[in-house]
Design goal:
alpha+beta; about 50% helix; binds adenosine-5'-diphosphate; transmembrane; kinase; EC 2.7.13.3; transferase
């Protein structure tokens, strides 16, 4: 048990104490404003799909669809917005597990190839819809990784999902993995719209989007990269991004090698 009493021996020490209390109080009020901001963002994000769902269901109930085809279009919008809501709620649950430090990590060794294959399989419809070609380039003697397999699959899924969503039709996506000191470096490159350099420092922030309308329209929650960063941080790895507007982006992260 440590002694919490603070003994002041001089005016200088009092000055230092006053400064650090001032600093702490600033940090607390910053934290408080971050929390408020987060709640405001969440409410806004939940409200927009709900408003749209409500609007289209009302229109259907009032018989406003002029024929079967139009009614089907309304229902498709309702379906899309419901999916987005459900993704948003799942992402929020995951984020709150990280915040409350209740996220459980199942650490073990696993081959990277199998989770890349699984992520690609889960996204095959989106890949086919845009007629994209995904090429993987994994060194043949790639060591096993060490981490939570499901969460690393989620990292790859989120990055690949973005690469697909921000690519133009018939584009190409490259996934590579190489040993990197005691780590493994995984990179996902697309040749899509890219990110302006002024936005780069913020893209890992919760709900930050370069183009809000486009992200929402394509089902984005604005939380994908925040979750990626959180998972990789908790694995002791690093995330990185290089991007040129109009040319494309490379997102990368490092992961421990098994036994490394
Ligand atoms: P979202 O659900 O909006 O995609 P993310 O957290 O995954 O949220 O990404 C944050 C923002 O970063 C996106 O809205 C987009 O503006 C930008 N972004 C992410 N990945 C890419 C990419 N591969 N190419 C271009 N922009 C991207």
């Amino acid at each position: 048990k440590f002694d919490e009493r603070v003994e002041i021996h001089s005016k200088d020490e009092l000055g230092v104490l006053a400064l650090s209390i001032n600093h702490m109080s600033k940090q607390l009020s910053e934290l408080d404003s971050m929390r408020r901001n987060f709640v405001a963002n969440v409410s806004h994000e939940l409200r927009s799909p709900l408003t749209s769902i409500q609007g289209y269901i009302d229109a259907l109930l009032q018989g406003k669809g002029k024929d079967k085809q139009e009614e089907k279009n309304y229902l498709q919008i309702v379906q899309k917005e419901t999916h987005r809501l459900s993704r948003l709620v799942n992402d929020l649950l995951e984020i709150s597990r990280f915040d409350s430090q209740t996220a459980l990590f199942n650490m073990d060794e696993f081959p990277l190839r199998s989770i890349i294959d699984r992520a690609m399989k889960s996204l095959r419809l989106q890949t086919a819809a845009k007629d994209l070609i995904i090429t993987t380039n994994l060194t043949s003697d790639l060591p096993l990784c060490y981490g939570d397999e499901d969460r690393i699959e989620q990292v790859i899924y989120n990055l690949l999902d973005n690469a697909i969503r921000y690519s133009s039709d018939r584009g190409e996506i490259l996934i590579s993995a190489i040993p990197y000191d005691d780590d493994i470096l995984v990179e996902i490159t697309d040749f899509g719209q890219g990110i302006p350099s002024k936005d780069i420092p913020f893209i890992w922030d919760r709900f930050y989007r370069v183009d809000k309308a486009r992200s929402r329209n394509e089902g984005g929650t604005g939380l994908g990269l925040a979750i990626v960063k959180e998972i990789i941080d908790l694995h002791g790895g690093k995330v990185m991004v290089e991007s040129t507007p109009g040319e494309g982006s490379t997102f990368g992260f490092t992961l421990k090698q098994s036994g490394g």
